[in-house]
Amino acid sequence: MKAKPDLSFWSLWNISFGFFGVQIAYALQNANISRIFSTLGADPHNLSYFWILPPLMGMIVQPLIGRASDKTWCRFGRRIPYLFVGSLVAIIIMVLLPNAGSFVKYIDAMAFGIIALMMLDVSINMAMQPFKMMVGDLVNEKQKGLAYSIQSFLCNAGSLMGYFFPFIFTAIGIKNIAAKGLVPDSVIWSFYCGAFLLILCVIYTTAKVHEMPPKEFAEYHGFKEEKESDKSKKDSFITLIAHAPKAFWTVGLVQFFCWAAFMYMWTYTNGAIADNIWHTQNTASAAYQDAGNWVGILFAVQAIGSVCWAIVIPLFKSHKLAYVISLIIGGIGFLSIYFITDQYMLFISYFLIGCAWAAMLALPFTIVTNAVSGKNMGTYLGLFNCTICVPQIIAAILGGLLLQSVGGKQAGMLFIAGIFLFIGALCVNGIKETIAEK
Questions:
Q1: Are 45 and 182 in contact (CB under 8 A)?
Q2: Which of 82-86, 151-155, 227-231 shows the lowest mean pLDDT across its residues?
Q3: Full residue range of the structural domain in which residue 418 is found
Q4: Rounded to an integer, what distance in angstroms lies between the CA atom of residue 107 and that of residue 270?
Q5: Contact, 256 vs 428, CB < 8 A?
Q6: Is residue 108 a part of any domain in this protein?
Q7: What CATH number corresponds to the domain at position 380?
Q8: Alpha-carbon Rg of the chain, whole angstroms?
Q9: Distances (CA, A) of 54 to 220, 284, 312, 339, 368
């Protein structure tokens, strides 16, 4: 088997650059979905149920995209065709979703919003997964940590831009309030700009990245090029899961607690900040919409923290040590939110949370892609995405019940998120890193 050569920094950068645009879209979704549905009239106790759709779509779409792209060889590449189609659909939905209240003559605004959210997450997942797969395909084991750290950096830089958009548009005079049942113009224009930047970034990646042809890929990954007569012999999802390396499962356990924690952050930060800082839960009020803009700022601070910590992570000699420290720091950030009543002090909390987020984006994929075969890389990463989606679904289902248990105080849900990260840090000790036999 030929060893994959070292790639230049800019080659590693180009592989992941499109992730910058995809993450702008993802950040706009995460920061504004609760705000949009609250504005459309959703009850806070039912808010978490809307968040079931994104991970549910990811759990279905990403394994299918991974498996399909493992078998795809065409003039445009192996992973890039799925990236391009997913991005195109995402752009269309990003233009439509924030206008849900405007279609009330033709369809119920809440129903339209749910359908649009489902389609947006299908397309974002379709566009996002190829970037993780291309690192596994094109980068050698020595450089994967750096490659995923670059991806984490670009991911958080994109998040930073997406989170700032509503605040910036409000600052330049675009309306931040709207009639009951309508989304403010500041949010609508944020989605428009995100869609425009997404297509630019995807075009850049498509032009700059050239995937390996089948014969070359087979040589670098240590298996024979698939013949036509062998294409019917496919490993099923069940077979692959049964033969998944131990790292797949142990990292998955850590993922469970991490992603449940962040599900509660995305769902309840808006209500928690509106309550703790602006002392309102009236979704039609200017104060509530100001809180919504501030959530974007806080998520931007989280992204800054993540960008900074992504630079630090490669300096650790041990992936596990970096993982544990990152999750503990993030857990402290979540716990602190419950006690803070000053909007600027929350910068510290969300900067600390960003450290956990940086680790979650880089370290699990470094460990898992090193442990699995290149032949089924896409399928395994698609299946591994279930360790991201399942905890979010379970957390969303339990969200209303847990909210009642903390007296309806949405900041209490962020305290629970901090406890989850501490549990995840403990579970890191069970991970055993391995290198797959290619």
A1: no
A2: 227-231
A3: 9-208+246-430
A4: 27
A5: no
A6: yes
A7: 1.20.1250.20
A8: 21
A9: 35, 26, 30, 30, 23
